[in-house]
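Possible regression after last week's pipeline update?

I re-ran a chain I had predicted before the update to compare outputs. Posting the input and the new output here so someone can diff against the archived version. Not blocking, just want to make sure nothing changed silently.
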Amino acid sequence: MLRFILLMAAMFALPFIAWHLWRLVQSPETDQAEQAPATTLAIIGVVLALLATVTLALVDGPGVSRDGRYEPPRVVNGEVQPGRFVPDEGDNVPEDPPGDG
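New output (post-update):
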């Protein structure tokens, strides 16, 4: 949840940061005390945050499981079995098979 909140805050702040960086690199001749267009930057920040939320929902949606251990795709009897998550059985580390010593 903290990762999500930090991402949303970063997406909202990004237009403000970009605008201030752009003002820093402006030539000194245009040294006007121009106020930041706060409303426009806020709208852009909200749109970026919404796009990030939608992207996270599509990429990290309900079909993605974080419970268990990931088994990568493998070939068994000439057929490719897709990768999958299997329930984690605690901290049991698989032992080496006998005879591989």
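Follow-up from reviewer: compared with the archived run. The mean pLDDT is 81. Marking as no regression found.
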